[in-house]
Amino acid sequence: MTIQLKVPDIACSACVNTVTQAIKSVDGNATVEADPKTKIVKVQSQQSEEEIKEVIAKAGYPAA
């Protein structure tokens, strides 16, 4: 499943790294693309959108 989220707090490559690691902690096979300029995170994952939103919020990056 492909999930696209707007994550306003992503500002740099370190933020992208943190979000990617958080997602991979619940789905090691997930593919994550994040763009700090557009604040868009695209996730290819078997996890639900709610679970992805929850895990990145716990990492300090709540989705809008």
In short:
The protein has 64 residues and is α+β, with helices and mostly antiparallel strands. It contains two helices and three strands, in the order βαββα.
Describe it for me?
With 64 residues, the protein is of the alpha+beta class. The protein is 38% helix and 23% strand. It has two helices and three strands; from the N terminus they run E-H-E-E-H. It is globular and about 25 Å long. The two termini are 19 Å apart.
Properties at a glance:
single chain, 64 residues, alpha+beta, three-stranded antiparallel sheet, globular
**Fraction of residues in β-strands:** 15-25%
Report the oligomer.
single chain
Radius of gyration: 10 Å
Biggest pleated-sheet summary: 3 strands, antiparallel
Rounded mean pLDDT score: 96
Distance between the termini: 19 Å
Write the layout of secondary structure elements.
Layout: E1 2-6, H1 13-26, E2 31-35, E3 40-44, H2 49-58
